[in-house]
Each structure stands twice: as C-alpha cells, then as structure tokens.
Amino acid sequence: MVALARRIRGTETFVSFPAMTEAGNDPVMTQRGSVAALYLHLTTRLDFTEYRRLRVGDLARTLHLERRTVGAALRILRDRGYIERGTRLMDVFTYRLLYSRRAV
User: Fold this and answer.
1) Which end of the chain is more exposed for a tag (fewer CB within 10 A), N or C?
2) Cα(1)–Cα(60) distance, rounded to whole angstroms?
3) 1 and 29 in contact (C-beta within 8 Å)?
4) Quick one: average pLDDT of 72-87?
5) What is the reported pTM?
C-alpha cells in the first residue's frame, strides 16, 4: 500500500505520498479491509487540490460494499486525517485527498 501505480501512456509509474505511506502502518487500515479498499479507490478518483463530488451509493456499487459501510469508512478516513470533506454541492459532499495526514 506504499506506492500507487498509475498507467501513463502505456507505462506504469508509481506514486507515493506521506499519507499513503502512513496508511500501510495504520492499524485501522490493516484491521478494516473496507477502509483500506475505499482509500485505495479514492487515490485514483481524488487529488490534493480540487474537491470532487463523491456519491456514497456509487462508491458502494463500485466496491461491492453496503452504503452504510462506505459511509462509515469515509467518516473514519476523514477523522484519521486521510481525506478532507469540503462543502455540499448539489446534495453531495465533496472530498479531496490530503498529501500528509493532519494530527489526529
């Protein structure tokens, strides 16, 4: 979980950032697979600067999890300093990744 692979024009590059490195050692991530799975999925959908809309129902369908499980995992990631929730936009909350975890 330390490096994220992204495919750019046919080649793979590995991207790592401090919060992702810490996630590999976080007991919450290692004990709750739904939290880790959601975080890895969010690293491909979110970035560090712009807030993006996330629908819990869409995430649940994509990851084959229940809506309440995804909602709880989002709350854990937010409380542990891995993501930041922005404003509500058209009845959906916006989120962005945090490059480095804030103190929890």
Assistant:
1) C
2) 21
3) yes
4) 92
5) 0.78
Tokens representing 34 are: 């739904």
* 3-class DSSP state of 56: helix
The span from the CA of 57 to the CA of 68, in Å, is 9
Q: What is the largest CA-CA distance in the chain?
A: 39
CA angle, 35 then 99 then 60, to 5°: 30
- The Cα-based distances of 58 to 8, 21, 32, 55, 70 in angstroms read 25, 27, 20, 5, 10
Measure the CA–CA gap between 101 and 81, rounded to whole angstroms. Answer: 5
